[in-house]
Amino acid sequence: MNTSIEIPVVMLDEKPVSITGCRHHFPLLHEQVNGKPLVYLDNAATSQKPQVVIDTMMRYYQSENSNIHRGVHYLSERATQAYEKARDKVREFLNAAYREEIIYVRGTTEGINLVAQSYGRTNVKDGDEVLISAMEHHSNIVPWQMLCEEKGATLRVIPMNDAGELLLDEYEKLLTAKTRIVAVSHVSNALGTVNPIKHMIALAHQKGIPVLVDGAQAVPHMNVDVRDLECDFYIFSSHKVFGPTGVGVVYGRKRMLEAMPPYQGGGDMIKSVTFEKTIYNDLPYKFEAGTPNIAGGLGLGAAIDYVQKLDLKAIGEYEHDLLVYATEKLLVIPGLRLIGTAKEKAAVLSFVIEGIHPHDIGTILDAEGIAIRTGHHCAQPVMQRFGVPATARASFAFYNTKEEVDALVKAIYKVKEILG
Ligand SMILES: Cc1ncc(COP(=O)(O)O)c(C=O)c1O
Questions:
Q1: Comparing C-alpha atoms, which of 160, 163, 181 is closest to residue 171?
Q2: Could you give the 3-state DSSP secondary structure of residue 96?
Q3: How confident is the model over 13-29, as a mean pLDDT?
Q4: Quick one: 354 and 262 in the same domain?
């Protein structure tokens, strides 16, 4: 059994720092819960925030607060510049070709709805098909169902095997002349599976079918390069990548976004309005109606600066070691079944224990100061596929440690002692 985990050293502001040493940047990680040191293993739901993100947002409200894009006064110009600079950071983070390809939204959910409503309503017609996968989050199912219902189209689903890996042969067969778009997660929140999206995109493109990637669970764990992936849309939420809630990003290929109608109407998304006709604004503003989450955008920029200073490749490798270590420890617990055993996995461990409801596992762990998530993880079809009503899910970030995994394992034995 692998009992030692090498902790990578990264350069932060030109100083070497161990990855787990970065814990001290996250104030909440030093809290006590129920009289015990917090062990935060609910990172797939939302990540903790480094002080620099909190400070950036505080600074905006304390000394920069102003609406953007509309004012000629000092504060408005300053806020606009900061907000647009954050957009440039997102562009660079995803390696998008143009800043116009970066649309701010409220989060992944809104981003997928934007594409479904704008691209989808324009391009999906009666008799067409939309292809998603069996492991999608509800936010990458329901918007497509709504679209299909409206248009008389059919939702098709790429099946998966018992390990939680998509069946690529079936996928190829499902890519037909009727398929208008493929929408698939990069990493599954419920199973941890990392999908071979580059390959999947290439297969879809061979048939001229565009691909949307739900990157909510990928961006905190790996470098994402939208030009290398050649995806048409890539969507993520700031709050899962150490940024604030209420802001997210749609990357879309410029030529596709240009051809798409706006998603919402209102201020900022227009060039001119008369009662007879509205001329829409250029990208990216065409898709950004109304006052955006300005503090959120700035916070996301700070979060991106922060993760970019760390080495996302080293983060991914360290988290993989943590995953392997935790998997080995969990698998020897009698009655414990892992849900999601794909070869390629991000650091997510979904499990059930025979005879014990996941909520009871979560409650006892909470008493030990350990935060995990229990439930269907907004992926009810995944639960149905594996024949369980819910799972307990521990999900790691780079600031988690081997000692925290040990605390989790010890607490699970306690759960068994009490309820087993
Ligand atoms: C894979 C996946 N997609 C989409 C979402 C929705 O993200 P949000 O609630 O931030 O819109 C989540 C959130 O857990 C997710 O894990």
A1: 160
A2: coil
A3: 91
A4: no
Annotated catalytic sites, by residue? 378
Distances (CA, A) of 107 to 32, 163, 244, 245, 297: 29, 29, 10, 8, 11
The rounded distance, in Å, linking the Cα atoms of 20 and 25 is 10
* CATH number for 273: 3.40.640.10
User: Residue 394 C-alpha to ligand 1 middle, in angstroms?
Assistant: 16
Burial of 274 (0-12, 13-18, 19+ CB in 10 A): exposed
pLDDT band with cut points at 50, 70 and 90 for residue 16: confident
pLDDT for the residue 285 = 98
Number of domains in the chain: 2
What CATH number did the domain enclosing 375 receive?
Answer: 3.90.1150.10
Could you identify the atom of ligand 1 that is nearest to the CA of residue 189?
A: 16
Give the helix/strand (H/E) hosting 401. Answer: none
Q: Which pLDDT score is estimated for 30? A: 96
pTM of model > 0.90:
yes
In terms of domains, do 93 and 187 share one?
Answer: yes
Q: Which atom of ligand 1 is nearest to the CA of 46?
A: 14
β-strand partners of 194: 187
The token duo for 14 is 């030109």
Q: Is the pLDDT of residue 2 over 70?
A: no
Mean pLDDT of 30-41: 97
271 DSSP 8-state letter: E
332: containing domain: 9-50+311-419
Q: How far is the CA of 216 from the centre of ligand 1 (A)?
A: 5
My answer on whether 109 and 238 are in the same domain is yes
| Ligand 1 pocket test target in 105, 135, 189 with most atoms within 8 Å of CB | 189
d(CA 280, CA 277): 10
